[in-house]
């Protein structure tokens, strides 16, 4: 099938997650993504990070479908080679620290002179200017300083980060959206523009209504564990063999839950008839529900909940999550054969077009794997010209 971005070419100067995840999404939509790596390669290649068969699982995940080309951008000849690629590209993305683009002479003003249609996107920690611009911006740092860790974890216990690198991923999520908007605009104007994504900004945005309540004069939110500050019941309850999440936002779901539990007395109890009352009497109701739900297994309760149309789900581990029927139905596991790591299975593309589930899934590249091919196909260099660049350490 055809993919909507199959004529888009991206030069990725990104590393690890924040500068690579957005391009991985765009590659799933058909874009050609060329990783321009230094001779040392993307730091995400470090094999001790999420190891899979001797390689980094992080790199194998976020660099699916990409091509790797090694260019020494610290040399003038390397930069000239890069400029030649920019002339034939649509997007350049990076997650360098502020000042690096200018120092390497690959900043937007320079690239715009080379190709007025180029779109450049920088994913930063706190923006390219300002008091915090040069602070280290690791995922846990951004999760912490953005307030997310203050509302994650159990009440009265130390704060915890989310189980995924959400701050890093926010850089990819928002850069991807911004680049799609810039591509759409360029089709109308004919000229590119520069985008900047701050991971801190992204995480503030993801605080969503929690921040709105506080900024508008509400109480300071606290850690709730799996519970919900404004809805009861809405949390994970222990069963005889695991945990079951129940989420009764509407009062009709509360009535249906009481039917599933065979507890009409709870449905009739005036302390619990509305969500507001259940929130007010949380300390009374939740212990009652916990005692009831310990009586059966997760599977038995889940069958009853679904029979009564109660929003409920098991607390799956990763194996359980990928064993759920929609995974196979929507082809959410894809695979590729990597020349060094062997068969790799990984999450698929959640964006489905035209009712199909086809996903592009090419192996994450070896360092510099496509250097020769790209120099020949895009820049039309001859074999002896490529050999000379290699001999001088410009490419590898």
CATH structural fold name of the largest domain: Rossmann fold
Count of discrete structural domains: 2
Strand order of the largest sheet: 5-2-1-6-7-8
Q: What portion of the residues fall into strands of 2 or more residues?
A: 5-15%
Query: How much is the radius of gyration in Å?
Result: 25 Å
Q: Identify the overall geometry.
A: elongated
Nearest-integer average pLDDT: 97
| Assembly annotation | single chain
Strand element count: 13
SS summary, helix count:
18
Would you write up a description of this structure?
This protein has 396 residues and is an alpha/beta fold. The chain folds into two domains: 9-206 and 328-391, 3-Layer(aba) Sandwich (Rossmann fold); 234-315, formyl-coa transferase, domain 3 (2-Layer Sandwich), CATH 3.30.1540. It is built from 18 helices and 13 strands. It has helices at 21-28, 57-62, 76-86, 100-104, 108-114, 139-145, 166-189, 199-206, 208-215, 251-261, 264-268, 275-280, 282-293, 298-307, 318-322, 325-329, 371-377, 383-391, and strands at 9-13, 32-37, 51-52, 55-56, 67-70, 91-94, 119-124, 194-198, 234-238, 243-247, 312-314, 333-338, 342-347. The strands form four sheets. Strands 5-2-1-6-7-8 form a six-stranded parallel β-sheet, with helices on both faces. α1 (21-28) crosses α7 (166-189). The chain is elongated, with a radius of gyration of 25 Å. The protein starts with 8 loop residues before the first strand and ends in a 5-residue tail after the last helix. The mean pLDDT is 97.
